[in-house]
Amino acid sequence: MNSLTAPAISARGLCYAYGERVVLHEACLDLEPGFVTGIAGPNGSGKSTLIELLAGVRTPHRGSIRRLGSVSLVVQRPAVPETLPLTVRDTVSMGTWGRRVGRRQARKTVSEMIDTVGLAGLDYRPLTELSGGQRQRAFLAQALASSADIVLMDEPDTGLDTASRLRIHELLVNQAADRGAAVGFATHDENFLAAADHVVLLDVAQHHPGEPASSAHPRGRG
Predict the structure, then answer these.
(1) Of 11, 92, 148, 197, most Cβ neighbours within 10 A?
(2) Comparing C-alpha atoms, which of 3, 11, 4 is closest to residue 150?
(3) pLDDT, averaged across the chain
(4) How many Cβ atoms from other residues are within 10 Å of residue 79's Cβ?
(5) For 50-93, what is each residue's pLDDT tens digit?
């Protein structure tokens, strides 16, 4: 942790439940600018819920979250209505909305991000015609095009082959190292976690059956 830089996101004592089913209990973590943080744990431990809380999609039932900067979120298996006439370029272009850049620069950024995630040549392909992995990469390109201070991803490697997963790992590391973004992602992939500087483990607390607890273990970027 860089003691000279305030966390981009600081979460303390987060609790969340779906009805009577508690999925997060007293979870705490910091996301640091320029660092990649992986969130790991078994199914049902609250990884996706924690990502959504950090992004502001959900509100914790108890606890606090402080954010410094803009946030971009890539969800797991984003649903795309069959009637929605969106192309890859349309999708990625949404990432530039709200940014103070000219149209020419925005178009250049969109083209660069499409190429970066390996979708070059598919600019005008409808999202509904893409594979699940290709859709995931399109939404990742949208997030990268936003140049957000904080990039959050829920299972960003879902549906990707080995080569694509390695590319995504590299992109996440580059977002932190080159841009200084605070990157956080949830995953089961050990190789993906190996790309992180820090790992937050969500486990079932022994004194509260069914209630996950969070502990952080720093790892070197590798």
Answers:
(1) 92
(2) 11
(3) 83
(4) 7
(5) 999 999 999 999 999 999 999 999 876 556 666 678 899 999 99
- Average confidence (pLDDT) over 190-204: 85
Neighbour count for residue 76 (Cβ, 10 Å): 17
| Dist CA 74 CA 152 (whole Å) | 6
Whole-angstrom distance, CA of residue 61 vs CA of residue 126: 39
Helix residue spans in the chain (DSSP H)? 47-55, 88-93, 103-116, 132-145, 162-179, 190-194
Give the Å distances, CA to CA, from 206 to 104, 144, 210, 213. Answer: 56, 39, 8, 9
Q: What is residue 130's DSSP assignment?
A: S
DSSP 126: B
* Numbered ranges of CATH 3.40.50.300 in the chain: 1-70+148-222
Task: Say how far apart CA 167 and CA 174 lie, in whole Å.
Answer: 10
Structural tokens at position 112: 């660069």
Please give the model's pTM, rounded to 2 decimal places: 0.82
Assign 3-class secondary structure to 135-179.
Answer: HHHHHHHHHHHCCCCEEEEECCCCCCCHHHHHHHHHHHHHHHHHH
5 contacts: CB under 8 Å, gap ≥ 6: 32, 33, 34
Per CATH, the homologous superfamily of domain 1-70+148-222 is P-loop containing nucleotide triphosphate hydrolases (3.40.50.300)
Q: Contact 92/110 with Cβ under 8 angstroms?
A: yes
Phi, psi of 28 (to 5 degrees): -135, 140
